[in-house]
Write a structure and sequence with these properties.
With 74 residues, the chain is mainly beta. Helices cover 12% and strands 47% of the residues. It is globular and about 35 Å long. This is DUF5795 family protein.
């Protein structure tokens, strides 16, 4: 598991997924670089794949420098 610094604090994949989702999740994969810039501040964006429920898999994106986050739901 790769931990990363997000907005000045160390987060685990599970914690990052919960920041993106806004509530607890079941399981999360490793954090990865998203190879994109934040649309709000231009900072680095990281991604994490996670399961918010038994039947759903989501990729979440979070800026390391500001509050911006998003996911790949349509």
């Amino acid at each position: 598991m790769s931990n990363r610094v997000v907005q000045g604090r160390m987060v685990t994949p599970e914690t990052l997924a919960e920041l993106v989702e806004g509530e607890s999740i079941l399981e999360a994969e490793s954090i990865e670089d998203a190879d994109r810039e934040c649309p709000e501040c231009g900072g680095d964006v990281i991604s994490v794949g996670y399961m918010p429920s038994v039947t759903e898999f989501v990729t979440g994106y979070k800026c390391q420098d500001c509050d911006w986050s998003a996911d790949d739901r349509e």
